[in-house]
Amino acid sequence: MSEPVPALPIPPGSSFALMTSPDTERHATAGVHKPVVILPLGAVEQHGPHLPLGVDCWLAEAVALAAAEGQASMRVAEPFAYGSSEHHRSFSGTMSLSPQTFIAVLVDLCTCLAEDGYLPVMLNGHGGNRAAIQVAITTLGKRGIVTAGFSYFDLIADLAAEALPDAATGTGHACALETSLMMHVLGDSVRRDLIPPGGTPPSWPDPHLYAAPAVTVWRRFEAIRGNGVIGTPSQASAEAGSRLFIAAVERSRAAILNIQSEFGQRNAR
Q1: CA dihedral in degrees (264, 137, 67, 239; nearest 10)?
Q2: What are phi and psi of 216, to 5 degrees?
Q3: What region does 25 belong to: left with phi over 0, alpha with psi -120 to 50, or beta?
Q4: What is the DSSP string of 120-153?
Q5: Under a CB-based contact definition with an 8 Å cutoff, are residues 170 and 177 in contact?
Q6: How far is residue 42's CA from residue 28's CA, in Å, rounded to a whole number?
Q7: Tens digits of per-residue pLDDT, 164-190?
Q8: Which pLDDT tens digit goes with each residue over 190-204?
């Protein structure tokens, strides 16, 4: 029997859910700008033979909690663990929402936060959520509600190129990037003896994380690689994970502060 994965530590003052309702009323009206509530988004889905199902959600939550630490104007909501993961459903354990359901949930949650005087910021850890988050932000904007979102891994592409042996073809899913981060954040959850060798077979369009292909085609992951891994997880290391995590936290915090400065005016819904 495997050991249980330890709970992520909650820095004092950073948790939205630890506040009382009167606390949130006071907090929402303090300061020059609207305070931010960070909503971590992820997925519960296969991550190859060596990583647990909760990778995307746990990493997003860890980055959010660390980014908000010491920031009086930031709180971290309970993470929304389930995402759009139909492309992984052939692998046991994957739990997926339809894009329409996922978008509807994000719109409802962010509407609640905005109505209470907060600026919602979605911090994403799952590549399959990116398009749906954009639609949710657009839907909210049409209703006059300003919100924002980003994927933490998109902020560290340049550092991944430095910290990993081959970020271009080594990153994708359950890859050198995610495996390195998990080695740093929740090292006991990584099955190091099950890390598969080799990389992704040739595939078009390029499925790797930082490829940004001009053509988009929806594909099930088993059609790309039978073990569900995109990239080269054997290139992972805890040292790289530490560098990448620190950068993800620092850049996420900077992005959120910039979002608050630019779009957190109290006269905006």
Answers
A1: -150
A2: -110, 130
A3: alpha
A4: EEEEE--GGGHHHHHHHHHHHHHTT---EEEEGG
A5: yes
A6: 26
A7: 999 988 999 999 999 999 999 999 999
A8: 999 999 999 999 888
Buried b (16+ CB within 10 A) or exposed e, 132-147: bbeebbebbeeeebbb
> 13 - beta bridge partners?
none
With DSSP H G I counted as helix, E B as strand and the rest as coil, what are the percentages for the chain, rounded to 5?
Answer: 45, 10, 45
User: What tokens appear for 50 in the block?
Assistant: 């060596």
DSSP-derived letter for residue 41 is: E
> Phi and psi for 39 in degrees, rounded to 5?
-110, 105
- Widest distance between CA atoms in the chain: 56
> What long-range pairs does 129-138 form, CB within 8 A, spacing at least 24?
129/41, 129/42, 129/43, 129/83, 129/84, 129/102, 131/99, 132/83, 132/84, 132/99, 132/102, 132/103, 132/106, 133/41, 133/106, 135/99, 135/103, 136/103, 136/106, 136/107, 136/110
Record the tokens describing residue 4, joined without a space.
């249980």
